[in-house]
Design brief:
Elements: H1 3-26, E1 30-34, E2 38-42, H2 44-53, H3 57-82, H4 86-91, H5 93-123, E3 126-130, H6 132-158
Antiparallel strand pairs: 1-2, 1-3
Length: about 170
């Protein structure tokens, strides 16, 4: 595939990840039903809002930073790096490694959400189920990981081949 074709698919992937992330943050991710009658639905944004209003400011800020701000920042950085020429991507290797490290936190968010649903269900008071927001958030995380891999592949392809060092003959 030509680099131009790869860049088109990369841009399309980042655009799709942006839409999925916006939906994953705003759509309900969790539905809680108490005694079969009362139901509440929570998105990531409403969860942060409820935590802060209930006095759980530290936990609310942690969720805000790691579940909302970090993925948005990563997505913006992916967008920026995707516009660079491949030679510049090679020079940005350290920043891309940091981006890879940050990307691992996004998958942890999905795992924590799954464990939260399991925990709430096991308590017996509430029935919990995941809603569409979880799937959009997960899709955004996977698409960002895929975008990073494509950017890294482009950068590796543009990296100059190391010149083998010839040993000096003994005299």
């Amino acid at each position: 595939m030509r680099v131009g074709g790869r860049r088109f698919f990369l841009s399309l992937t980042i655009l799709t990840a942006s839409v999925c992330l916006a939906l994953g943050i705003t759509l309900p991710i969790l539905k809680l039903t108490q005694f079969g009658f009362w139901t509440t639905e929570h998105s990531l944004l409403s969860t942060v809002n409820v935590l802060i209003k209930d006095g759980q400011t530290f936990l609310g800020l942690i969720v805000l930073i790691f579940s909302i701000l970090l993925p948005v920042t990563k997505l913006l950085y992916l967008l920026l790096v995707s516009t660079l020429p491949p030679q510049e991507i090679v020079r940005q290797h350290r920043r891309l490694s940091a981006l890879e490290w940050l990307g691992k936190w996004s998958m942890h968010d999905v795992l924590v959400l799954a464990l939260t649903i399991f925990f709430v269900k096991s308590q017996g008071v509430y029935d919990a189920s995941s809603l569409n927001g979880v799937y959009f958030f997960t899709a955004a995380v996977v698409l960002m990981i895929l975008s990073y891999a494509w950017i890294r592949t482009d950068g590796m392809a543009a990296a100059p081949e190391p010149v083998p060092v010839q040993p000096e003959p003994d005299t």
